[in-house]
Amino acid sequence: MKLRPNISMMLFVYLTVLCCAVGCSSIPRIDPSGRSVLTWDQAPAQATPVLGAPGVAVTAVAQPGLTLTPARLVAPLGAEILVVAGVHGDNRPMLPYERVEWMLSPGSVGQFLAVGESDRPGFLRPFSPSPQKISNNYAVSETQAIARVITRGTIDPADDVSILPGQAWITLSSPVEGDSFVTAFAPEITGLQGNRQQGVIHWVDARWTSPLSGVAPVGGSYTLTTTVMRQTTGAPVAGYLVRYEVVSGLAAAFGPAREGGAELTTGPDGQATASLVQVAPVAGITDVRVQLIRPAGLLPGTTEPLVLGSVMVQVNWSGTAAGVGVVPSPVPIGPAAGAPTLTNPPITPIPGTNTPPPTTPNATVPQAPPARLEVTLTGPTEEVVGSVAKFVVTATNRGGQTASNLIIVDRFDAGFDHKGDDRGTRVIRRQWVDIPPGTSQSLAIPLTVVAPGRLCHTVEISNADGILEKKEACLNATAAPVTRKAQVTVKKLGPQQMSVGQDAEFSIEIENTGDVTIPKLQVIDDCQEGLTPIAAAPEPKPLNARAIIWEINEPFAPGARLQFRVKYKATAATEKTCSRTSVSDGATLSEVRENCLKVVPVNPLEAASGVKLSLIVNSLRNPVSVGNDFKYLITVRNDGTQADRQVAIRVQLPPQMQLQPQGVRAPTRHSVSADGRTITFEPIAELGPGNSLPFELTVKAVQAGAANVTASASSQNTTRPFDAQGPVTIY
């Protein structure tokens, strides 16, 4: 599988947030240290790195329907984000060769860049379109039959991404801040649960520097400063919120009111500074959580605050007002220098957390006792099959020397799976970072639940002297509940052009394409200026000037259809006016279909003759895929009070279509041009008032794109031919 040259930044972002997106309690955050792009929060512990190889696939769940990963993500401008969709059937968790359509909702920023290729030879899919990007906000892909690997072009397999069978992928990016609302839709599994899923990418142009941990005199104060800058230009950013909160340790407070937290706004210099004051003069440590928040309304359309990052800072109250205290020497964050190469990729800690306090001038360092680790292993106690259980192991060095050359091993039951367990041994072994005295390090251990039952895993931390600490954690796994939701498809057919004073009928069909019975429906058909409703069937609520309302109080079963008809009168000439059909169940279901047309003035000569010819062109299937046959219905109608004669019809097909043999059904004979794209019908001798005649064409879609079939009509009483078009989307 090929990779676009700029996908490396996308892969870094995707690999960092992969396990969070499928089951974490928080979304990825911007890294405050500047050494990486994103990090995420742990609750209640600090931000932690992920234990395991990042170059792995999103695990598919064995439930019917479609899954989307990530469901929510914070990303920097310019990054190329990889989104993965999985299609699953009954007792078949990975369905290959399933069509997946990708759409960006109106109002979204950004655009699609690349879509996964098909692994089927062309001769095996003669009637299926190739996966392709059709526009910046619409693309079509296909689920894989075999596992494929997307690489960054390096020799290190740790930065690869695997796409599993039954999965399809797409990438997108944005040069401006805002939100991208992505929808994945699997049309071939209509009627199953979850055949469409939505996700959102929050694009942010911000990079922040958090306060450092440090030493303050007992009974004194400590200044915390956070700086926010543009990632693209480095300019300071005003208006962001910075939240400081004392979460554990010795009592301390902010501001004159001595409160346990403070929420400040960055100024023109991009900084927010708070002063932490110790409540009682006692030596020890205070833990402060620092959060960066994009407030609601900072960008157009942002209605909720968004947490972009979170770190923990430690203030060590020691020494006297003279600033004399005992602190550990700073230690670089990362694997020990000269660490041996491992068979599995090494762990990369999330920078910006647990920063060791700087040394104090003239500090005295006594003989320190050896390192002593205190280990906790936390995580969920209940999960469902298919979810990712995120455990966190935290090691605190209660001794006086640095704990170094640490090895962490996780052994887990058969009901768990880990993306770094390539050999199926159910054992993950990694080298860990050094832990200075008085500080903590944490690792997230994401385990995918693949079977029900009581599942356990054991974490061991050791060094050259042997096992230092061992902890076990267990959970109860149950089968995921099957949820069902309501879904309808709305079709609306009508003319593309009317004359002022002309009446025209629109047909509406509503089908229950979901898998649940809908107790009741409300159908509203309203229109804009230029149209007025004059009749409807079945009988609706009393008509008003612009809207027709039907209340359906009978159960609407899966597969059932409802038919409605509305007659509109064209009242004023306009280049474009629309009628819209809205369907709702009063709860979660909402579906809208719109039909737009042009209203032209009445020709005075035609009005005097009492003849009003109208022409309607409708595709009976829209959209349609390349290689498939479908029908067009062209209807000519005399809405006047006098008969018209010598009514002639001609139809022009676009290059994207091909007329099929025996593909014409009409009331008169016809001829076809040499290129097969122009069909001319012999004139109708007479068309009486209120009468109409249909012309049906069967065509094949041969080329993708937006297309229009154009029909023209002329008669004895019309002063000039007039046209009507019927649009269709071919993919």
Strand element count: 51
Strands across the major sheet, in which order?
A: 4-14-13-6-9-8
Give the CA-CA distance, first to last residue. Answer: 23 Å
Q: Shape, please?
A: elongated
Provide the low-confidence segments as ranges.
1-28, 33-62, 320-366
Number of H- or I-type helical stretches: 2
Kindly report the average pLDDT value: 79
Structural class: mainly beta
Provide the β-strand percentage band: over 45%
Sheet with most strands: 6 strands, mixed
Radius of gyration (CA) equals: 33 Å
Helix content: under 10%
How is this structure best described in words?
The protein is elongated. It is built from two helices and 51 strands. Strands 4-14-13-6-9-8 form a six-stranded mixed beta sheet, with helices on one face. The model is unreliable at 1-28, 33-62 and 320-366 (pLDDT under 50). With 731 residues, the protein is mostly beta strands.
Write a brief structural summary.
It is elongated and about 110 Å long. The chain has 2 helices and 51 strands. With 731 residues, the protein is mainly beta.
